[in-house]
Amino acid sequence: MDLKGIGIGEIAGEGEVFKVSTTFSPTEKNWEESADKELSKLKPAIEKVASDMEQLAQKESDGEIFEALSMLVSDEALFDSAVEKIQEGLDAGSAFNRATVEMTEVLKDDPDFAERANDMLDLAKRVWAQTEGVELSLEIPEGKSLILVAEDFAPADTARFNSSVKGVITKNGGPTSHVAILCRSKSIPAVVGVSEVDKLRPGEKVLVDPAGDRVVIGGAMADATVTMSYIPEHELPIIPVYGNVGNQGDASAATSSGASGVGLFRTEFAFLNQENRPSVEDQAESYTNVLNSSPEGEFIARTLDAGSDKPLPFLGIEAEENPALGVRGFRINDADPEFMNEQLEALKIAEQRSGKKVSVMAPMVARFSEAKQFAELAQSHGFERVGIMVETPSIIFQLKHLAGVIDFVSIGTNDLSQYLFAADRLHPKLGTLLDVWQPGLLEAIKETVRQAHRAGLKVGVCGEAGSDPLLAIVLAGLGVDSVSASPSQVESVLNALRCVDADQAKKIAESAFSQNRATYAREAAKAAFLRR
Q1: What is the model's pLDDT at position 112?
Q2: Residues 249-275: pLDDT tens digits?
Q3: Contact 277, 304 (CB under 8 A)
Q4: What is the pLDDT of residue 107?
Q5: Which of 44, 65, 231, 434 gets the highest tally of CB atoms within 10 A of its CB?
Q6: Rounded to 5 degrees, what angle do the CA atoms 351, 410, 210 make?
Q7: Cα 261 vs. chain centroid, distance in angstroms?
Q8: Architecture of 2-20+138-223 per CATH?
Q9: Does residue 498 contact residue 301 with C-beta atoms inside 8 Å?
Q10: Helices assigned H by DSSP within 381-463
Q11: List of residues 6+ apart from 42 with CB closer than 8 A
Q12: If we measure between CA atoms, which residue out of 530, 522, 401, 413 comes closest to residue 466?
């Protein structure tokens, strides 16, 4: 029997179903001694959970997720609400949990908040456990072959996955959900968005078959969908493969993986956990450390991409009803123009200290005037190569006017999908709309390449699309000049791009492009690759 979902990864995994549930299930109660005693418990508990998230941010390759969680649990409004509830009689853990539940209830109908709400409830549970003196952790037996099954996994749970974990199945989530990103970075096969997880029984054998977008009950590796075999036929890939990095650890991993450079440095993750505005020197030091650990070759830094799911308190941006469509990315320049000047100054200092050339690009650019404004600002700081992210569909049709204004564009497929399909990338029930094989997205990428090349602009792709080996071949066939992948995927993408020449890539892209559904496009590309 097959259960359908969205596959993450290509290699299948088999094992016994291990249903995950917490052993910490407290009930709300009032304090017994005094409000002051409960207040003395609350702050240390929050600080401990925030510290745990920051430690995971330093250790895990997708550290930016944990940085954001550290900020969420430290939210001042949430703390103030919990304090009020303590004064009304609830104990520390109950008060923080109720304050969190109330906040998520208010925002439950906001699709931008859907996945963050689950993260916040998990954080509240962790704070509650700290107030009770309980160390909350996911216990997974060692020395077994297990398929973990749950409605969802908090990011902190995925950090506990050990060698027994051969696959993951979740009821919620999509291809850009936290669990999907973290499983991909750990090379753990997963199928997310499986609505029928309740049919799985503890201990029964299952096959997680991401290439087939399915879970096979009673299945074994012999039943797995045949995956691509990327045996390089050429010494060099047909287009360069860069790495996506957010910190020094990512940069080192990109270097070890053989990346030709850095196609996306997420500068905001250097200070996501800071309450106060970072100085130019603080930024410069952080950026220099990343540059020194990065591969030789082009290094592209994206300026501040905060807002929406990555709030920065020191910017003073008010809460928004729909932050994904609000003040984020380059639009922050209007709210705080001095910060971008400070950031560009710090990047220039880091360039000089490291001896490596830095190119800069701005996110969330929607108009010609914004691209021109950023280019002039970056050039005034001495940057020679300047670009923009293609994330809003509107900018695609303005690229023809940018000849001589900028030098390159980088397609952020996660956000481009979000705005192209009006489907929030964090919404747990809209995963299929964010499939990187969606024909509408491929059309948008092809048009971007056409418009950009006519204007003499180089085109790169970052985001989840750049980390898919088969799709990287399609992108090369569509005329993309480079791709940028997560460090864990760089080697696989490199091998795939060493398997084909330019003509073969073009034919594979044409096969995918002729289809009208995401699954058909991927299957057509796979078939064309196998018969090349």
Answers
A1: 47
A2: 889 999 999 999 999 999 887 676 566
A3: no
A4: 60
A5: 434
A6: 115
A7: 19
A8: 3-Layer(bba) Sandwich (3.50)
A9: no
A10: 393-396, 413-420, 439-454
A11: 79, 82, 83, 86, 92, 95, 96, 127, 131
A12: 413
| Pairing between β-strand 214-217 and β-strand 205-209 as defined by DSSP bridges | antiparallel
Give burial (CB, 10 Å; 0-12/13-18/19+) of 209.
buried
Residues 419, 112 contacting (CB under 8 angstroms): no
Q: What is the chain's alpha carbon radius of gyration, rounded to the nearest angstrom?
A: 23
**HSE, side-chain direction, 13 A CA sphere, residue 95:** 26
* 3-class state of residue 97 by DSSP: helix
Query: Between 3.20.20.60, 3.40.50.11320, 3.40.50.2000, 3.40.50.1970, what CATH number should domain 241-530 receive?
Result: 3.20.20.60
Residue count of the chain, please give it.
Answer: 532
pLDDT in tens, 165-208: 999 999 887 776 778 888 887 889 999 989 888 899 999 999 99
pLDDT digits (tens, 9 = 90+) for 212-234: 889 999 988 888 886 667 888 89
Residue listed under structure tokens 């592209």: 300
Q: Taking each helix axis as running N to C, give the angle between helix 490-497 and helix 469-477, from 0 to 180 degrees, rounded to the nearest 10.
A: 50
Q: Which of 42, 44, 48, 50 is nearest to 272 (CA)?
A: 50
* Mean pLDDT confidence for 106-121: 64
Contacts 24+ apart (CB under 8 A), 245-248: 245/290, 245/294, 245/487, 246/62, 246/63, 246/64, 247/57, 247/58, 247/63, 247/64, 247/290, 248/289, 248/290, 248/293
Task: Round to whole Å and give the CA distance between 221 and 145.
Answer: 13
Which residue(s) pair with 167 in the sheet?
147
Considering Cα of 311, then 484, then 264, then 10, what sign does the dihedral take?
positive
* Nearest alpha carbon to residue 309 among 54, 47, 118, 106: 118
How far from the centroid of its chain's Cα atoms is residue 508's Cα? 27
**What is the DSSP annotation of 30-76?**
B-SS-HHHHHHHHHHHHHHHHHHHHHHHHHSTTHHHHHHHHHHHT-H
Confidence at 400, pLDDT banded by 50, 70, 90: very high
* Residue carrying the six token digits 């999509």: 174
Of 220, 215, 310, give the one whose Cα is nearest residue 271.
310
From residue 169, how far is each of 135, 147, 411 by CA, in Å?
A: 25, 7, 30
CA–centroid distance for 333 within its chain: 23
Mean pLDDT of 280-299: 95
In the chain, where the domains are located = 2-20+138-223, 35-131, 241-530
Quickly list DSSP for 473-513: HHHHHTT--EEEE-GGGHHHHHHHHTS--HHHHHHHHHHHH
Residues β-bridged to residue 4: 214
Q: Where do the DSSP E strands lie in 96-145?
A: none
Short-list 280, 279, 301, 281, CA closest to 290: 301
Alpha-carbon distance of 169 to 208, in angstroms, equals 8
Residues annotated catalytic, as ranges? 178, 462
